[in-house]
Amino acid sequence: MLTAVAIAVDGLGFAAWLFLSSVGLTLIYGVMRILNIAHGGFYALGAYSSAWAIGLYTQTGSTIALTYLIIPLAALAVGVIAGLLIERGILRFMYGRDEVLMVLVTYAIFLILEDVTKLIWGTGSMVAYQPAYFLGTIEIFGIPYTIYKLCLVGLAIVVGAVLWWGLNRTRIGKLLLVVIEDREISRALGINVTLFFTVTFVIGVTLGALGGAVTAPQISVVPGIGAEIIVMAFAVIVIGGMGSIGGAIIGAIFVGFARALSVHLYPPAELFSIYLVMAVVLAFKPYGLFSLAEGRKI
Where do the coiled-coil regions begin and end (predicted)? Predict the structure, then answer.
């Protein structure tokens, strides 16, 4: 019984973290058809920015409660600054090019961002444990669990709900769906496709940075964390269907619980379990569970 509870709680927590870390990747692909390998670099920037800002703030001796505001602000700063610089400075010149070229370009951006983090914050580790430590733990059926991780579950639900509402219940969201369906028709209708691309990329980068920012209080932030997350985020969106927000939710749940099962029942298979789930899903649904329909042009 206790093992089942531990698997359920850990699986839910890991799924929430995976969703927060990967939803920006699927959003950018869904709108812009760019497989953004640089997503891992934005995740790392968010983690470093959050840890650095929390470290500076806590040195002042002020209340820890305000660190929970620093986390999203750090992600927003990364999204606006890095997102605008890269989209306006590099990617806008690549629109309409071959998808393989876009992958190579974003991979090059990822390598640059890896070096940027080292130049700014060095190669040592950074620790910002205060937000997670301040909330303490709670017992679930006798098993202690970090309250901070439970808060991430709530945050993932809020982010998912806001994205769904924005895409399906607002005028801008419906215009965005038109852009996703056909860029040429959208331009003919007078929709500013370039502006939608810029805003989408900034939001996607902000979400990627948010995944790193909320992770910083739970880990030691070190060089290379961006490479780790891009692999798992890619597995999530491939399972759910690239470009689908709902698919990202389902993919995160699948991967989260597969990982929790392996950790508690057979730890050596922790990493293998993620790719096993992906292989099984793709064997029956080659484009993922909720892949977006591709329009056929004549």
Answer: none
The string of pLDDT tens digits covering residues 32-47 is 888 899 999 999 999 9
Residue 293 included in any domain: no
- Give CA–CA dist 77/83, Å, rounded: 9
Residue among 242, 264, 262 nearest 251 (CA) = 242
> 146 forms bridges with which residues in the sheet?
137
Let me know if 131 is exposed, middle or buried by CB neighbors in 10 A (0-12, 13-18, 19+): buried
Alpha-carbon span 211 to 44, nearest angstrom: 9
Helix 2-32 with 39-58: angle, nearest 10 deg:
120
Q: How many domains does the chain have?
A: 1
Residues of the chain with pLDDT under 50: 296-298
Q: What is the pLDDT of residues 124-170, one digit of tens each?
A: 899 898 899 888 888 887 788 889 999 999 999 999 999 999 988 89
Task: Using alpha carbons, select from 78, 101, 95, 73 the residue that is nearest to residue 195.
Answer: 95
Cα 225 from Cα 233, distance rounded (Å): 12
Distance CA 253, CA 55 (A): 32
Q: Which long-range contacts (CB under 8 A, 24 or more apart) does 95-98 make?
A: 95/32, 95/197
Under a CB-based contact definition with an 8 Å cutoff, are residues 116 and 86 in contact?
Answer: no
Give 278-281 contacts, CB < 8 A, sequence gap 24+.
278/235, 278/238, 278/239, 281/238, 281/239, 281/254
- The answer to whether residue 188 sits within a structural domain is yes
Q: What is the pTM for the complete model shown?
A: 0.93
- State how far the Cα of 40 lies from the Cα of 28, in Å rounded to an integer: 13
DSSP 38: T
Q: Is residue 216 part of a domain?
A: yes
Task: Report the C-alpha gap between 35 and 163 in whole angstroms.
Answer: 19
